[in-house]
Write a structure and sequence with these properties.
Strands 1-32-31-30 form a four-stranded antiparallel β-sheet, with no helix packed on it. Strands 2-3-4-5 form a four-stranded antiparallel β-sheet, with no helix packed on it. A four-stranded antiparallel β-sheet has the order 6-7-8-9, with no helix packed on it. The protein has 396 residues and is mainly beta. The protein is 5% helix and 43% strand. It is globular, with a radius of gyration of 20 Å. The protein starts with a helix and ends with a strand.
């Protein structure tokens, strides 16, 4: 029951209306105004991966390794494609990795099969399943390497680095698995509130540590070998009387620019934390469900209300801010060349100059909402829309 209510809360918080509804309370998305386009997105190829996700919180993200792009659909299809042409190299289905006797209990009839992915590193490709497992495959041919049990659903891409796979589940736990056979090495657990947004941040693997953000507004820096916390500190404190008012989830992308970590929470703060000491450099009031991007010497914050801000990472001061996309449910900001790219609930990709926040391009790439962060490879933008389609665009 708790998971169902988490989904309902997520859908309401990111919708265009207030909690109580009603015409007087309706918050209307900003109307798009004409811009003088300076750059354009040209479609290179696109491919249907499968049906769209049933879960509005689903944010399946493709991964690029060498000359291949890997992607998965919520319905269970996993594909390897050539980056230049989109030609399918191999295709698997998650059900292929389960014996017949396990399929009935592993997957619900109306549930998405793949909830977290795609993570790639070394020779591995890893996805998280609704069944509460991670499934690792060989990048070369999609053959199964291992299945490993997690404690709950994995909604973010599992992370792979050298000999280790890291998966964060929605119950406040982070687990490390051996990349060879899936043996669990350690598990780190933190308490979670009774009510949270449906989602998690994506762990960062850096050198000998694993950096994780949680739904209780805390971040932890864990020892890679044993999972022990060298730093465990609060980024945002719950405030208010109701459970809704006290939501301070860290669900969006964190940015690491050593030695500093930048992290934003919902209804909390944007903070800069020195990982050498664990001390906070500065913080600003902020609210975000999708998190941060970085480039041009700035940190970019997509606010929960659709504002987009550029922040000086040394001082925490505002460089510029735009509100032309308010209430359009923005995706995580990513940088491509001199620009920022964000998607919205109507399937538009917006291109914004990193230097001053002016709009320089816009392209409608889907008829459904864009929710997953884009993947950038040079001048190419990979977009996986919520209707189960992967498309590649060249910035010109």
């Amino acid at each position: 029951m708790r998971i169902v209510f988490m989904l309902a809360v997520f859908a309401t918080l990111v919708s265009g209306c207030s909690w109580f509804g009603g015409d007087d309370d309706e918050v209307r998305p900003a109307e798009l105004t004409r811009i003088d386009a300076e750059v354009q997105l040209h479609k290179v190829w696109d491919r249907k991966l499968g049906p769209g996700a049933n879960d509005r919180a689903s944010q399946l993200i493709p991964a690029i390794a060498g000359s291949r792009v890997f992607a998965a659909s919520a319905s269970g299809k996993i594909m390897a494609m050539e980056v230049d042409s989109g030609r399918v190299i191999w295709e698997k289905h998650l059900r292929d990795f389960y014996p017949d006797e396990d399929r009935a209990t592993a997957f619900g009839k109306k549930s998405d099969l793949i909830t977290g992915g795609v993570g790639a590193g070394g020779d591995l490709l890893v996805v998280g399943s609704f069944a509460g497992e991670i499934v690792a495959m060989n990048q070369s041919d999609g053959s199964l390497v291992f299945r490993a049990r997690t404690t709950s659903e994995v909604l973010a891409p599992p992370q792979v680095d050298r000999d280790i796979v890291i998966a964060q589940s929605i119950d406040g736990k982070v687990a490390a698995f051996d990349a060879l056979d899936g043996t669990r090495r350690w598990i780190y657990s933190t308490s979670v509130p009774s009510l949270t947004l449906r989602g998690t941040s994506t762990p960062i693997l850096e050198s000998d540590v694993v950096i994780v953000g949680f739904s209780n507004g805390r971040i932890a820096v864990l020892d890679r070998k044993r999972g022990l916390a060298g730093i465990d500190r609060r980024v945002a404190a719950s405030q208010g009387k109701s459970d809704l008012e006290r939501l301070v989830d860290i669900d969006g992308r964190m940015v690491l620019i050593p030695p500093n970590l930048y992290v934003a929470s919902y209804q909390g703060n944007l903070a800069s934390i020195d990982l050498t000491s664990g001390n906070e450099n500065w913080n600003l009031p902020a609210s975000s469900t999708v998190g941060l991007g970085e480039g041009f010497g700035n940190i970019y914050l997509a606010h929960a209300d659709g504002k987009l801000s550029a922040i000086n990472p040394q001082r925490g001061s505002l460089v510029w801010e735009i509100d032309g996309l308010k209430h359009r449910q923005l995706t995580t900001p990513v940088t491509i060349r001199s620009y920022i790219a964000v998607g919205d609930f109507e399937g538009y990709v917006h291109l914004i100059a990193q230097s001053d926040g002016r709009f320089v391009g816009r392209e409608r790439v889907a008829r459904d909402a864009l929710r997953a962060p884009f993947v950038i490879d040079g001048s190419r933008l990979y977009v996986q829309s919520s209707d189960g389609r992967l498309a590649t665009y060249e910035l010109r």
